[in-house]
Amino acid sequence: MNFFHVHENEMWCEEVPVRRIAEDVGTPFYLYSYRTLKRHYQVFDEAFRQVPHIVCFSAKANSNVAILRTLISEGGGIDIVSGGELFRALKAGADPRKIVYSGVGKREEEIVSALDAGILMFNIESFQELEVIDRIAGGMGKKAPIAIRVNPDVDPMTHPHISTGLKENKFGINIEKSLDTYRKASSLKHIDIIGVDCHIGSQITDITPFLDALERLKKLITLLRQEGIPVHYLDLGGGLGITYNLETPPHPSDYAGAIIERAGDLGVTFILEPGRVIVGNAGILVTRVLYTKSHEDKNFIIIDAGMNDLIRPSLYGSYHFIQPVSPRGDGKVQADVVGPICESGDFLAKKRILPDARRGDLLAVMSAGAYGFTMASNYNSRPRIAEVLVRDGGYFVIRDREAYRDLVRGEHIPDFLADGTGKKL
Ligand code: LLP
Known about the structure:
Elements: E1 4-7, E2 10-13, E3 16-17, H1 18-25, E4 29-33, H2 34-47, E5 53-58, H3 65-72, E6 77-80, H4 83-91, E7 99-101, H5 108-117, E8 121-124, H6 127-139, E9 144-151, E10 173-174, H7 175-186, E11 191-197, H8 208-226, E12 233-235, H9 252-263, E13 269-272, H10 276-279, E14 283-295, E15 298-303, H11 312-316, E16 322-324, E17 332-338, E18 347-355, E19 362-365, E20 386-391, E21 394-399, H12 404-407
Parallel strand pairs: 4-20, 5-6, 5-13, 6-7, 7-8, 8-9, 9-10, 9-11, 11-12, 12-13, 15-17
Antiparallel strand pairs: 1-2, 2-3, 4-14, 14-15, 14-19, 16-19, 17-18, 20-21
Helix pairs in contact: 2-9, 5-6, 7-8, 8-9
């Protein structure tokens, strides 16, 4: 459920007409609904109320500090995968004791910052990483709290680029090897084993893969405890899917209910790392039609947003519902909705039946709150777009549109390239 709706031929975000924001801030821009964000967080959190748990929002889905802050103020923690995300999480006011840190390639300076901050735990993805963290923690006179990210080898039945829990994926440590890795970890002086972690993939629309993974983790937890290795936390990662088009993912309460039932009396604090399910349908991309054209039997709607702003359709063939911000009730057209980037892969929709669009019309690209802005780039030297948060009847620019000067920030023309007058940039 979200708070974007069409009423009397106008699209609204909560109590604000989307058109008004577009006129004020220009297009394209990402638009988020505060009420939707809060609701999604609360529904998810509430679903796990029967068991001790921490909801750590996955910052990679949307890392704007205002979005993080919104979820933190609801009691959420943050799931991070880089020093940059740690920086953002702390800036947004996250409690370090609710930060979990995953990722196959943690750099030494990132490990130092996380130890300095006092995060809840590192999710370890290789034995070498464990050794490095042990050494660094020792040097800092600390013990590093860890879980091992176990790869349970289950098929999440999602897009291959976003499935992570199969043997062939680079993530985690194979479940068969993990007991051995835990044993080795328990011999390291500056490592404090506190849990088990897994994340099997993203946009998962069926409960079965989650339960299959849990089943395997339960067995591992029993074996670990038999050897006296403590497991206080069970991090089940993120991955719950959302409706972009016709998908029917489980409701968070069904997902949580099934997990709680299957877990039985495990005596752990659950950690969940939802991203998409919290923010995906709490955000849209608002764009303006620049031109329309037809050749042969094809129609093109050329918009001012491109694959650099929202790469999901180009990268994964993802579907985003597109609708006019001010529907006219005219005829329909089948068209490719394409951006201004010089690549044929630059599209937001292909062969889509849409209300007839004209130059100047505003379109809303729905379900764009997750992995939208965070995956944006400056390709074709396009400044990254603004982000706006609506709350009740007001709206707030939570990220300025980049200016051209931002495009060259940090670039330098070395002396040998200066012109005759010594002039550089
Ligand atoms: N935890 C870990 C360790 C993850 O790798 C991910 C996502 C999450 C949590 C959050 O998963 P979610 O609840 O959002 O499904 N760019 C792709 C999605 C990549 C997901 C990567 N990992 C997309 O646009 O669909």
